[in-house]
Structures are given as C-alpha cells and as structure tokens.
C-alpha cells in the first residue's frame, strides 16, 4: 500500500506542476495555455541531450532548458495568441492546442517515438515508511511542494503578481489604472515556460523523455487544476496529489486500465459537486 502511495504522490506532484503552469499563464494573461505541459517535455529532452548524450553538468542543463522553454513560450504568445486576442470566442484555446501539437510533432521528428531514459539522480530504491520509493521521486514531491508555495507567495506578495491578480479580476480596469496588460501577458507565458523548463529535467527521470509526454500531461494537469480550483496555485498542488493518488490506487486495486477512468470520474464528480474546486472560490456578480 505504501509503495502505491509513494507512486501516487510522485505522479500527483507532476500533475500539480502542470496545473501550476496553467494557472500562472491564466492569472497573468487570461489565457488557458494548453502548451504549458510541452515546456516540461522540452526540459526533459534538453536533459536527455545534455546529461545522456553530452555529459553537461546538471545546473547548466537546467539553465539551457529554462532559456529554451521560456523563449518558445514568448514566441507562442507573440505568434499564436497575441494576433488573435481581439477576435474573442476563446480562439486562443485552439491556437495554444495547435502550438502544443506542433511542439510534440517536432520532438517526434527529432527524437522518434521511443521513450528515452534520463538519469538525474542515482537509480537506487529506498524503503520509506514501509514503501518502496526512489530518490528522484522524493525530490519530485519536494520540488512540487516548494515550487507551488514559492509561486503562490510570488503571485500574492510581489507587485507583478498582485498586478496579475488585478488583471485577472478586471483587465480593463487594470489597464486604466496604468498596468501594462500586454507586458503581463508576455510575462505569464514566459514565466510558465521557464517554470516548465526548470522542472522538466527532474520530471524526465520518472517519465522518460518521450514525444507524447506533453500531450499526456496536458489532460492530467487540466484535471488537477479543475479539482484544485481554477486560478488557485495552492489548489494546483492539492488537485494534483488527489488525481495522482486516485489514479494510482484505482490502477492497483481495480485494474491497470481503470486508473485513467477513475481520473475522469473524479473530474465529473468535482464539476457536479463543487465546480469551483477544492480551494477555489465561486464568485457571484450582480449585473
């Protein structure tokens, strides 16, 4: 049971990281960027290129991943989102999904469809609290917790973060008050991209570097965001861990094919019973 618990917490940490990326972009730019998970995949492939193929030191690999992922996120905002913002109808959902598909396709062309192993930490197995867990899995859980708390305080305590919250509440009013809404949108994409690139090399040892990684994580990260509460950074962590644990225990005790089904059931149940999420807050407006 404890081994299953550790496995669920590890995958939940990854889903939480994806959900945090979604929420960073959503708060600062108002766009739900379905390509956020692809920046984690980019970090994973940079880790494979740097650590496995070229023996580059890990800090330099992480720095390269951050720059590449942040740069691609900037290009995505400028090319796939900015020109269509005035068209309305949430067309950016389609264009970001298209950007995600393009990135996945490029990774497939460059590295092929096979999962590529990446080793960041020793591959030993430890027994912790009666369950089997590996060092990189413990690091993933710790990184998810620390990163989520850090982003939460950045959003709620820094001037840029508070400006993003103001923009999320009322973009037009924020602009009238002198806030550069366009710059905040760029910051949202670049910050989420750099965040994904930063975490990607650590995720890679658990998931491997595979071209479909971003597409797989996109759905689970979205469910984690919905469960935790859209716009809630701490909710991303709670939602991710819930999704990871439900998936792991359903696969363990019901059957390996039921892990994915259980995640969808959790999403539907949350939308029916608490649409605002575990830590989300519903808002009533008078018109």
Structure commentary:
The chain has 287 residues and is an all-alpha fold. The chain has a domain at 20-214. Helices cover 74% and strands 2% of the residues. It has eleven helices and two strands. It has a two-stranded antiparallel sheet with strand order 1-2. A hairpin with a 2-residue loop joins strand 1 and strand 2 (131-133). Helix 1 crosses helix 6 and helix 2 runs antiparallel to helix 3 (58-81). The longest helix has 28 residues, at 2-29. 48% of the residues are buried. The model is unreliable at 283-287 (pLDDT under 50).
Outline:
The chain is 74% helix and 2% strand. It has 287 residues and is mainly alpha-helical.
The averaged pLDDT comes out at: 86
The structure class reads mainly alpha
Distance between the termini: 51 Å
Question: Helix count, per DSSP?
Answer: 11
The helix-strand sequence is HHHHEEHHHHHHH
What Rg do the Cα atoms give?
19 Å
Number of strands: 2
Sheet having the most strands: 2 strands, antiparallel
Beta fraction of the residues?
under 5%
Helix content: over 70%
Shape: globular
Strand order of the largest sheet: 1-2
Spans of 5+ residues with little confidence (pLDDT < 50)?
A: 283-287
